[in-house]
Design a protein that fits this description.
Layout: H1 2-9, E1 13-17, H2 26-36, E2 42-46, E3 52-53, E4 56-57, E5 71-74, H3 81-91, E6 95-98, H4 108-123, E7 127-129, E8 135-138, E9 145-148, E10 156-163, H5 169-178, E11 183-188, H6 197-205, E12 212-217, H7 223-233, E13 239-243, H8 257-261, H9 266-275, E14 278-280, H10 283-295, E15 304-308, H11 311-323, H12 333-339, E16 353-354, H13 361-371, E17 379-384, H14 392-405, E18 410-414, H15 422-429, E19 434-435, H16 438-456, H17 469-481, E20 486-487, H18 489-498, E21 506-509, H19 512-522, E22 526-530, E23 544-548, H20 551-568, E24 578-582, E25 588-597, E26 601-608, H21 613-616, E27 619-623, H22 628-636, H23 641-645, H24 655-671, E28 675-685, E29 693-694, E30 697-701
Parallel strand pairs: 1-2, 1-5, 5-6, 6-7, 10-11, 10-12, 12-13, 13-14, 15-16, 15-17, 17-18, 18-19
Antiparallel strand pairs: 3-4, 8-9, 8-11, 20-30, 21-24, 22-23, 22-24, 25-26, 25-28, 26-27, 28-29, 28-30
Helix pairs in contact: 3-4, 6-7, 7-9, 10-16, 11-16, 13-14, 14-15, 17-18, 19-20, 22-24
Length: 704
């Protein structure tokens, strides 16, 4: 990847095909930017109607250029694209940046043209960014390449930035300039006909000029490859993503609990959780996090101190921090004693520290100098609402000097002033992350703290489970032959047993007398369920009876259930039968499941189960394959996790049994892509691992 993308990001020579001297045109602005940014290489304008552009000799075609060309930036009308790409291939050009639009973003004909372009690129062994893109930038002083039509001239810094949207390119570059955030490289990838974000992230992994990677994405080209690359890269370089285009995925039409719960972008959330990627909700939020990571070290923990000259903003900051999972510990007694003489007599010293409205740069300087030394603190937020009586520049200087003398991450919040003020400018020039509202800082710190925990997290292991694949293959084949849309009942439970997922003891009965005998053999209490694949949710038909304790109760329920089902399904020719199953008591009902995302593949779900799964929706998702650590985090992320660890005198359940079942299901779905959706509901967990059992299951088959 490095060699092929070097021809794009570090070319020795560039041809601008479609260059012109007409002001306001993309061809003119692109060539102007390359020259004005002082590109350290040769530049060749190409236009059949011009002999000179920008005082540089112009060539009719790329084939007329006498020197070799590493990179061609193409700005010709789409009707000329195929000929132009063919000529680039004949010339031996290695890299293309296709600015020209009018491809798959404009319908079927454009999509077909894009496929033809991609085929040509592949045939000649070239690499291409675009089409329909804004261009690329390499701000490294050794390269100085701006092959965009932007009006912004980025400064050199630590950031690698990818934008799928060309229209947002200018705005993104402007925001980086606004907050004094230097870029190393920028790429607008457009339609991703050849090079996508995965290729560029992989290229930047070993590039010393890129320390932080930012992405604006509308869709994933290959999420499974992204998962592999991002999991590796995020260990050494933060990846911050804004992912737009959130969609529901047919939740209303899903036949399983798992499918109904798996819409609303959970695939993307699961992917980012498993790969350590920081997901920002907005472009502004993405830049806030990037700015903090570029200018401050990652805090060692989530303990924050607030130093402010106004109580209201301190409360706002406190609420935002606590709501984001951060903590505000009280100061060490040594810090308290050091700060007391600085404040008006009787002013309490606690976190948040209110210096009161009259505090000047002197009080901020003295207080901050003690707070940054406090052993209970990992990062500091200095908040100032400037009254007319103080010089805000002196407060800014106090923050700057303290931050530079200390190793503790420092953030500034100046409320009631604009980003263009002298004080803000001082902070930015001194590389202090500064924002107008404290909530933005709280959100930023929460994202960074999550990343910190990812860095300290073990990688986990994917357990290799050897299931009885022959048995599962036979069950699937038999159900497909019978044209059953789903595997249910005995077959479903046998699939679980084939992968050593424990199942509650059960047997089928075809008469009330047989049901009573089976119940006595299994041992009371028992559960009775109607045995038919045509009823998906049995409780809706009163087709489940629980806590049956005598043979008489079993026979009575058999008769009543038979009447109800006959009334509900009068045309059914199926012989009535029931399942008699041991009743697991003293446990918590959970659900384990899977749904298939068309792009991401199998999504494993875990949550609170039984009839409440779709009401409470306390579930978590991860993308298969799962490590043991992924399974543990799924369980711990539930709001109802305390129900599993022991609540108000109840015994904690055996968490390891749940982890074991989740990872076994992950292996099962990887072994068999025949399943579109799976529900193991309920999966009852108890304090005794030998009494933790799946009670019911359903495997929806893929269409063939």
């Amino acid at each position: 990847m490095k060699g092929s993308l070097d021809f794009i990001f570090r070319p020795k020579s560039i041809a601008v095909i479609g260059a012109t001297n007409r002001k306001g045109s993309i061809g003119r602005e692109l060539l102007h930017n390359i020259i004005d940014y002082e590109f350290e290489g040769k530049v060749f304008p190409v236009n059949p109607t011009k002999s000179v552009i920008h005082s540089i000799k112009c060539y009719s075609t790329i084939l007329d250029v006498p020197d070799s060309v590493d990179l061609a930036v193409i700005v010709v009308p789409k009707e000329l694209v195929l000929t132009t790409v063919e000529q680039c291939g004949e010339k031996g050009v290695k890299g293309l940046v296709m600015i020209t639009a009018g491809f798959k973003e404009q319908g079927k004909a454009g999509a077909e043209l894009e496929l033809q372009v991609a085929a040509l690129v592949k045939r000649y062994g070239m690499r291409m960014i675009g089409p329909n893109c804004f261009g690329i930038i390499n701000a490294d002083p050794k390269v100085h390449l701006d092959a965009t039509f932007s009006k912004i001239r980025p400064s050199f810094g630590k950031i690698g930035l990818i934008s799928q949207s060309g229209a947002l390119g200018e705005a993104i570059l402007a925001q980086a300039q606004e907050i004094n955030l230097g870029l190393s490289m920028f790429a607008s990838i457009g339609n991703k006909a050849d090079i996508d974000g995965n290729h560029i992230i992989e290229y930047w992994r070993d590039d010393p000029t890129v320390e932080i990677i930012l992405l604006y994405l509308e869709n994933f080209g290959d999420p499974r490859t992204f998962s592999k690359i991002a999991r590796e890269v995020s260990r050494v370089k933060p990846i911050i993503v804004v992912k737009s285009g959130k969609t529901t995925q047919g939740a209303a039409a899903a036949s399983s609990h798992t499918g109904a719960l798996a819409g609303l972008d959970v695939s993307v959330d699961a992917l980012f959780e498993q790969t350590g990627v920081i997901r920002a909700n907005t472009i502004e939020e993405m830049f806030d996090v990037a700015n903090a990571l570029a200018k401050m070290p990652v805090p060692k923990g989530n303990r924050v101190a607030i130093v402010t000259n106004a109580g209201g903003p301190g409360i706002l900051a406190t609420d935002a921090l606590i709501g984001s999972g951060m903590s505000l510990p009280q100061f060490d007694q040594k810090t308290v004693k050091a700060i007391q003489p600085i404040l008006p007599k009787g002013t309490p010293v606690h976190n948040p520290l209110d210096l009161v409205a009259g505090a000047t740069g002197v009080e901020f300087r003295k207080s901050l100098s003690h707070v940054v030394k406090d052993p209970n603190i990992d990062s500091v937020i200095a908040i100032c609402v400037p009254p007319v009586t103080i010089d805000l520049n002196l407060v800014a200087d106090a923050i700057i000097d303290t931050a530079h003398e200390s190793k503790l991450p420092m953030f500034a919040c100046f409320m009631g002033v604009t980003y263009g003020s002298d004080a803000f400018d001082r902070l930015r020039q001194a590389d202090i992350p500064a924002m107008i509202f404290p909530e933005s800082i709280a959100t930023t710190l929460a994202h960074i703290d999550k990343y910190r925990r990812w860095l300290s997290r073990p990688e986990g292991k994917i357990a290799k489970i050897k299931g009885d694949r022959d048995k599962v293959t036979e069950i699937i084949a038999r159900n497909r032959k019978a044209k059953n849309p789903a595997v249910v009942g005995d077959d479903a439970l046998q699939i679980l047993d084939a992968y050593k997922i424990a199942v509650a003891a059960y047997k089928y009965a075809f008469s009330k007398e047989e049901a009573a005998k089976i119940a006595q053999k299994i041992g009371f209490p028992v559960v009775m369920k109607v045995n038919t694949p045509h009823i998906l949710h049995k409780t809706e038909y009163k087709a489940v009876a629980v806590d049956l304790r005598t043979p008489q109760e079993v026979m009575e329920q058999y008769v009543e259930m038979q009447k109800r089902i006959k009334k509900a399904m009068p045309n059914s020719k199926e012989k009535f039968s029931v399942v008699i199953q041991e009743m697991i008591t003293g446990g918590v009902e959970t659900v384990i499941g899977m749904t298939t995302d068309p792009s991401f593949g199998p999504l494993i779900m875990f949550g609170l189960g039984g009839i409440y799964v779709e009401i409470m929706k306390d579930v978590s998702f991860r993308i298969a394959p799962l490590t043991d650590l992924d399974a543990r985090e799924m369980i711990q992320s539930l709001k109802g996790y305390r129900l599993l660890t022991g609540f108000r005198g109840s015994k904690p359940v055996d968490i390891v049994s749940i982890e074991d079942a989740i990872t076994k299901l992950s292996q099962l779905v990887l072994d068999f892509p025949d399943f579109a959706e799976i529900d193991i509901n309920p999966f009852i967990v108890t304090a005794d691992k030998n009494n933790t059992r799946a009670v019911d299951a359903r495997f929806v088959l893929t269409e063939v």
